Amino acid sequence: MTEPADAEARRAVRPVICYPNETLPVPDMDLYRRALASARKVGEVLVPPREARCFEVPAGGFFRIVSVEGPQVGDLNLWNRGDLAERFYSGKTRALHGTHLTEGERMWSAFPYLRPMATIVEDTLGWYGIDPFGGSVHDVIGTRCDPYTGNLLAGTQYHHCCHSNLTRALAGHRGMPVSEAEGHVHDVLNVFMCTGFTRETGQYFMKASPVRPGDHLDFFAEIDLLGCLSACPGGDCSAEHSSDVAACHPLLVEILEAEQGALEGWRPPDRNGYIGGHGA
Q: Which of 232, 253, 251, 228 is nearest to 171 (CA)?
């Protein structure tokens, strides 16, 4: 197509932030950090390579995802423990905070709830920032590796991708058929994954994760949570995912309980205040 005469002028129009977030409820990070510093570990779940495991965290508790043996990324789903219809909404989280999450930012739940589910309190990879390729860590842009896309692109029948791992783990944890569990699995927070978009084509890319054993991501549970974490079959996602070729490692989820009185004044967030009706 021939460029119009004012093509450069159109490109030069300055962008506008879609969702200015200055009016978002601000988490009390000093309170959360003090409570985390004195919290005690009350449980743990080891997620094997190319598998997923579920875990539960009460409102006011913490959970920590830890790299324990080698560079490994994980795909995280969150639900309201008492109502699976309230689940993590990666698209709205991305719109509110950006493509990658770090300390002080939150995982928000789906409509009609739209409230904080978990707040990131500590991120040992927070130093990474945005690299020269436009990559960063802990993204909310990737959807999770899945068998359907693998079949579409390569004709494969691979069952240990993150979508299938999460489905099996949820089915086993809640005692429901796999077909029912699959409907609850949703887009993820890609923990430790280093990703971005190419400038030339706008394609989603991944690169070797900077995570190393001992690195961790700590969350405060704003509501009662059911979590599920998959240790991605891509390992550190430096080359490929959804295969048995990449070197993969386990991930550890630790559950921590705040000391009594450490969260004085805190209360779980209410459901979104929209009155409903949609003008009908």
A: 228
Closest CA to 101 of 1, 21, 203, 5: 21
Predicted TM-score (pTM) above 0.85: yes
- The rounded distance, in Å, linking the Cα atoms of 5 and 275 is 48
Q: What is the mean pLDDT of residues 161-180?
A: 98
| Distance from chain centroid for Cα 155 | 28
- Whether residue 169 is predicted with pLDDT greater than 90 in this model: the reply is yes
Looking at the chain, the whole-number percentage of residues with pLDDT higher than 70 is: 100
The residue ranges of every structural domain in the chain are 42-257
Return the ∠ at Cα 75 (arms to 124 and 116), rounded to 5°: 75
What whole-number distance in Å separates Cα of residue 105 and Cα of residue 121? 8
CA distance 225 to 117: 8
